[in-house]
Write a structure and sequence with these properties.
Protein name: Lipid kinase
Number of helices: 9
InterPro entries: ATP-NAD_kinase_N, Diacylglycerol/lipid_kinase, Diacylglycerol_kinase_cat_dom, Lipid_Phosphate_FormReg, NAD/diacylglycerol_kinase_sf, YegS/DAGK_C
Order of helices and strands: EHEHEHEHHEEEHHHEEEEEEHEEEEE
Keywords: ATP-binding, Kinase, Lipid biosynthesis, Lipid metabolism, Magnesium, Metal-binding, Nucleotide-binding, Phospholipid biosynthesis, Phospholipid metabolism, Transferase
Strand content: 35-45%
Distance between the termini: 22 Å
Number of strands: 18
CATH class of the largest domain: Mainly Beta
Largest sheet: 6 strands, antiparallel
Domain DAGKc: 1-127
Strand order of the largest sheet: 6-5-18-15-8-9
Family: Belongs to the diacylglycerol/lipid kinase family.
Length: 290
């Protein structure tokens, strides 16, 4: 008996339009019956998933990290296993899970049926897969337009960072975790659940998406441009070895700032400080390569 899948595709994703027909054909060839739904409003995705929960066996989402972030609450509520078609710009969750970028191969991963339970991060009631952050990354998110993504692809993150880094200023924050309170002057605080974020940056050298911990780093530098020499280490997740970078690991973290600051989860601005972060262990199942 064929498995029944709800297919949700972000047609505005970098490879959305041209890839949809290819994915549908391949998935059907592999024995998956598809029920396709679409919406122009990503916030509606959780309700769509909930509506279909008793009529399908799995959810397949085609899009990038932002689309997955928009849908995650519905997946958690229904506990339907998740298949990923990486159609976005960065596809950091797919990269973390070693899901192939080639669409036919990603369809094969779903059809093969191997599932892995993964952790999720949670901040102020919002789940996230990869990283939640405040500071410089939020400014990058605000400037990262659809046109820049279409033109530069995964390099769009670096291009946009170069544009905004000169305008970024340090801010004061208090980090509470593991029974300690630390006051910092920082340009960015990032809290990671997965491994990759921001187009292939690494949150910590040994981070995985099922290690049951959150990894925090704080860039405590005087001028935002000083991040540039740190980038090679941040690409490898080795920033904790450098002066001016604070790191810690925990399952619960609180961040307070003097003024309300926006927080970016998986590349989308979804909440504000004060922020309470929690790890949700083994929160959902995803199809991964065998």
């Amino acid at each position: 008996m064929n498995r029944r899948a709800l297919l949700l595709v972000n047609r505005h994703a970098r490879r959305g339009k041209e890839a949809l027909a290819q994915a549908v054909s391949k998935l059907q060839e592999l024995g998956i019956d598809l029920q396709e739904e679409s919406t122009e409003k990503p916030k509606q995705l959780p309700d769509i998933i909930r509506r279909w929960s008793d009529r399908v066996d799995l959810v397949i989402i085609g899009g990038g990290d932002g689309t997955l972030n928009a849908a995650v609450d519905g997946i958690v509520d229904t506990q339907l296993p998740l298949g990923i078609l990486p159609l976005g710009t960065a596809n950091d969750l797919a990269r973390t899970l070693a899901i192939p970028q080639a669409l036919d191969e990603a369809c094969q991963v779903i059809a093969n049926g191997k599932q892995q339970r993964i952790d999720l991060g949670w901040v102020n009631g919002k789940h996230f897969f990869n990283v939640a952050s405040l500071g410089l990354s939020v400014q990058i998110t605000k400037q990262l337009t659809k046109e820049i993504k279409q033109r530069w692809g995964v390099l769009a993150y670096a291009v946009t960072a170069i544009r905004v880094v000169g305008r970024s200023r340090p801010f004061l924050a208090e980090i509470r975790s593991n029974g300690e309170s630390i006051k910092v002057k920082t340009v960015q605080i990032a809290v990671g659940n997965g491994r990759y974020y921001g187009g292939g940056m690494t949150i910590a050298e040994d981070a995985t998406i099922n290690d049951q911990r959150l990894d925090l780093y704080s860039l405590e530098i005087e001028r935002a441009w000083e991040i540039i020499p740190l980038l090679p280490a941040m690409k490898q997740g080795q920033q904790g070895d450098l002066p001016g970078v604070r790191t810690l690991q925990s399952q619960e973290i609180e961040v307070y700032t003097n003024k309300r600051r926006p927080i970016n989860t998986d590349g989308e601005i979804t909440t504000y400080t004060p922020a309470k972060f929690r790890l949700i262990p083994q929160a959902l199942s995803i199809f991964v390569p065998g």
